[in-house]
Fold this protein.
Amino acid sequence: MPEFKVVVNDPEARDPRVVWVKVTGVDELKYTEEHKEGRALPEARLNPKTLELLDTPYKVVTLRIWRNRAANDKVKFTFKVVADEKVPENIMHVPKALLTDKLGQEEAVGEVFRAKAFQVTLTGDKASAFLGRKIGETVDASVIGIGGKKLLITGGSDFAGFPMVSTLPGSGKKALLLSGPPGFHPRNKGERRRKYVRGNTVSEEIVQINTKLISA
């Protein structure tokens, strides 16, 4: 059964508005093994007015909590957010179990903004939707819970980290002479190296697929 880590980039979230919120852990929001393993985004709740400020049509947000700003010590979480009028403005409800597990506390202050990128692990039929697809082809974004959009496949990598390249047909691995990414980042102008890369077609040997949200 295929399993892929799908990285989703939102090109419309170039300069998202940041809103400071008080983060409160609540028992009614669950933090399950599925969330811990990245197979689903945990749910958070915001007041509709606060959510409107974020301009996030897919209802996916990033929460950034600074533990020590001077030391650049921060943690980030990605949530699927739901509007809830019972939540006060500028308050964000998240699973208590998540906060205590990651921070050892039930409350915090953080910055929330529209997610520029997030990752979901897919298995079964949802993962199978990517099998045989090539770089440049699309998959319906409903596989990650977003309707009315497509996921444009922009690249990926296998279990050993070898990247997919659009110019190599098929799904096999081959050594190519490269002058730039993906697969090689030259340090000197004109430098070329022979590197192993994967073909442009998604197979079960791929572990990560890079995508971009586009209009259906």
Summary: The two ends are 28 Å apart (CA to CA).
